[in-house]
Amino acid sequence: MSAFNLLHLVTKSQPVALRACGLPSGSCRDKKDCKVVFSQEELRKRLTPLQYHVTQEKGTESAFEGEYTHHKAQGIYKCVVCGTPLFKSETKFDSNSGWPSFYDVISPDAIAFNDDFSYGMHRIEISCSQ
């Protein structure tokens, strides 16, 4: 059971030791070791249904239809969930895949690589490490 699922079972009136939940004790001084946690209720309120589906349910938006596929404005692409800066616009390129592609990241610690074996093929999914 993940720490998040365990926390759903605990009510405010039931104190729980942080170590029992797998959370760090004390303050987090090193952001790399302290993941940002949002409740599913908060995320459902804050994100669009598509954003929630993609970020929380391992969904995928349709190829060539995403808001940022043909986006050309200069700036920084941030995680829609936690706001972590991920990519700079000058590293974006057209991979003809139907999804935004970047050849570099702002910080290697900001992203996670996840194997995706769906649809009978092996792909690498890039997501925010938070």
From TrEMBL:
One Gene Ontology term of the molecular function aspect: metal ion binding
Coiled-coil ranges from the UniProt annotation: none
Domain MsrB residues, every copy: 40-130
Catalytic activity: L-methionyl-[protein] + [thioredoxin]-disulfide + H2O = L-methionyl-(R)-S-oxide-[protein] + [thioredoxin]-dithiol; [thioredoxin]-disulfide + L-methionine + H2O = L-methionine (R)-S-oxide + [thioredoxin]-dithiol
Similarity comment: family membership: Belongs to the MsrB Met sulfoxide reductase family.
NCBIfam families named in the record: peptide-methionine (R)-S-oxide reductase MsrB
Main function: Methionine-sulfoxide reductase that specifically reduces methionine (R)-sulfoxide back to methionine. While in many cases methionine oxidation is the result of random oxidation following oxidative stress, methionine oxidation is also a post-translational modification that takes place on specific residues.
Protein name: Peptide-methionine (R)-S-oxide reductase
Organism: Geococcyx californianus
